[in-house]
Specification:
There is one protein chain. By secondary structure, this protein is mostly helical. The chain has helices at residues 2-9, 13-23, 30-35, 68-77, 84-90, and strands at 41-44, 104-107. The protein is globular. InterPro entries: GK_N_sf, MOFRL_assoc_dom, MOFRL_protein. Residues 2-90 form the MOFRL-associated domain.
Amino acid sequence: TITRALLHSGANIKEMNLVRRHLSAVKGGKLATMAQPARIVSLIISDVPGDNPTDVASGPTVADNSAPRDALRVLQRYGITIPKPVSERLNQPAGPMENAATGEVRLIA
């Protein structure tokens, strides 16, 4: 898998999560978008340096400001071969994350 290749490549957790956010249907604020109009309260227990909510579990309820091409650059930096559909997806322009990550984000540990 791409995640496994990233793990073995030496990519750091921020880089891995950036790629995962762009390849997932729920990460990078997409879960919060799908849950609308429900009120979201994220109680986050961090296991990543810096405790950035975007990096914890790849931020399913936190809007992502990165672009798909940022993820593609990470994969290229580590020489990770990706299937054509993934390459096409990551070469798309970034779309707006309208109304993503509504509600509260609380770092509790």
